[in-house]
Protein: phosphoglycolate phosphatase
Amino acid sequence: MFDLVMFDLDGTLVDTATDIANTANDVLESIGYAPLPHAQLRNWIGHGSRELMVHAYSHASGASLDAVRRCAGGDSLMEVFSRFHAQRCGQHSRVFPQVRETLQILLDLGIGLAVLTNKETRFARLVLERHQLQDFFDPVIAGDTLTARKPDPLPVMHCLREHGVEPRRALLVGDSTIDIITGRNSGVRCWVVPYGYNGGVPIRDCAPDRLIDDLSSVARAAQGCDAGSTDSPIQHEETASWP
Ligand SMILES: O=C(O)COP(=O)(O)O
Structure:
């Protein structure tokens, strides 16, 4: 059914929200601001750690998002984030149920596995290493790996090209509208889990190709045991571009 499965990282493979929120609050407190509620910080996950800090700093300081993005201190703030995250990462984060089992089944079936995350490379590697997941994936495409990130189709196209796989033989598994739009933009099916981070919006309202309970659905489909589903996979455009 698939020759390549690409996975989103945060909210799909690993529940990282608490470590990310704690890190963001460490940074805010280190520069004199009050910590923000975890629920609020969690809603900013999905566009990379820098963008999350842009939102957190803008919210705490009252400066506009654009002003914070333009601010010259962004790089040094991310160095502070990086130092705190090195301590926080892995403290509370957990690999979601059925992830390891599914990855092993897919690997044993000879299916290519990749990570597509908007998180920056150094933080994506840290999460994968802290949870001993790094050896499953090749490549790991992070938010700063290429010239564009999800929902741009470039990361998907890059993976397809590396694996020599056509869009119709690939699957993207994610937790957010960013992943759903990425799938559409690249002509690849996108299945989503219900337990991740989607800016506070229920993912079932975002018209995914398929809503799955957990990753064991991917393993069953790959093993040919997909008994069908009430979900309605999208029709794929014949014109979907081959990378
Ligand atoms: O914004 C993040 O850090 C996470 O991004 P991801 O959901 O694409 O893995």
